[in-house]
Every structure is written in C-alpha cells, then in structure tokens.
Specification:
Elements lengths: L3 E7 L5 H12 L3 E5 L12 H5 L11 H12 L4 E7 L4 E9 L4 E5 L7 H4 L4 E6 L2 H15 L4 H20 L8 E4 L5 H22 L1
Parallel strand pairs: 1-5, 1-6, 2-5, 6-7
Antiparallel strand pairs: 3-4
Helix pairs in contact: 5-6
Length: 210
C-alpha cells in the first residue's frame, strides 16, 4: 500500500484536533490517526499528586520510539495496538486502540516535529499556528469541562510548563513545517488545499490497485 504520512503539529489549543477531525470526516476509512498524547509514558508507580506535578510538555514525557515503530509497522501494512492515555488520572490506561493501515495516516501532537526520526517519516508536515491568548482560553475550557481539572491547576500548569516548553520546543519546530495553517480547521482555504492534496493521493492509490 502506498501510504501518505501527514504530521499535524502546533501548540496546545491551536486547532490541531479540529483540522484532524475535518480530514477524518472527509476521507473516512481511508484515514487512520495516531495521537502523540496517547504515547505519554506510563507512571503507574507514582501517586496521583506526583503524576500531576510532572512536565507533560517536554519531549522526554513521550514514548516517541514506540510511536515511530507503530508508524513504520502501519506503513508495512500491519495493524498496531496504540496505547491510550487517561487525562483524568495523568496516566496511561490499560486499554489499547487497534489502528489499521490505511492510505493516509495522520500523526498529531504538539512535539511531533521536534524529533527528527519521527518527522523524517512524514510526507507532509502541517503546523497549526494560533495566537497564544486564544490557545490558553481553549485549553482552559477543554481541561475544565472535559478533563475534570480545576481552573487553578490549569493556569498553574500553563505558566510553569506549557508556556515555557512551547517557547523552547514547539514554536521552534515550526521551521520544519511544509505548510503553516492559521487557525487550523477553521481556515477553510487551507483546509480545501489540504483536502485536494490528500484526495489526489487517495484516488491515485486506488488507481494503482486497479
């Protein structure tokens, strides 16, 4: 199978997931998604308080080598079992998600362009760029409503790790992007261009199989 690997990076709350969801809706079974967040390292040996205090925005927080192996396996046409991360307890779940090889694989995460071995697997690298004040407001809304966090804990985490790690690792990785998209899935012009590029690949792959 001729597989296209698309990386979608950007800061927290930038609109990466909105863009990813739009592409999933457009191409359905032709697309599989791997979220870098699901590859957060397991810390089941720690207490909840200890896990809550960890820096989740540093490259070392992720088991990126496992993600690289999974992408390579998908490209070979193999099905993989992706780990699942539970944000409410700051730890990896006992569950896994079965991800099947498809014509297009989307890799999404804040730090996926920071790792050279990972980004070298990607055919298209998209960086979603959104103003910092918009991103922090989105993060507050998401973490309080969907992840059961307190407002104080979200703000504290943002100031102590999210913001400095964004400036140290995420923002500099933008230079590796092939495309910089303002406002993610809400940027309909950029979305249409990306959809056309993927459609060309999907239809070309179908023609090859025929």
């Amino acid at each position: 199978m001729d597989t296209m690997i698309i990386g979608i990076a950007g800061g927290t709350g930038s609109g990466k997931t909105t863009l990813t969801r739009r592409l999933q809706e457009e191409f359905g079974d032709h697309v599989s998604v791997l979220f870098h967040d699901n590859y957060y390292r397991s810390h089941s040996d720690m207490s909840y308080e200890e896990r809550a205090a960890l820096n989740y925005d540093h490259p070392d927080a992720f088991e990126t080598d496992r993600m690289i192996r999974d992408i390579q396996a998908l490209r070979r046409g193999e099905t993989v079992c992706c780990p699942v991360y539970d944000y409410t307890v700051h730890d990896r779940s006992s569950e896994t998600i079965e991800v099947k090889p498809t014509k297009v694989i989307i890799v999404e995460g804040i730090l996926i362009f920071e790792n050279k071995a990972l980004r070298d697997l990607m055919d298209i690298k998209i960086f979603v760029d959104t103003d910092a004040d918009v991103r922090i407001l989105r993060r507050i809304m998401r973490d309080v409503k969907k992840r059961g966090r307190s407002l104080d804990s979200v703000v504290e985490q943002y100031l102590t790790t999210v913001k400095p790690m964004h400036e140290q690792f995420v923002e500099p990785s933008k230079r590796f992007a092939d495309i910089v998209v303002l406002e993610g899935g809400r940027n309909l012009v950029a979305l249409d261009m990306i959809i056309q590029r993927i459609r060309s690949h999907v239809e070309g792959a179908e023609g090859d199989e025929g």
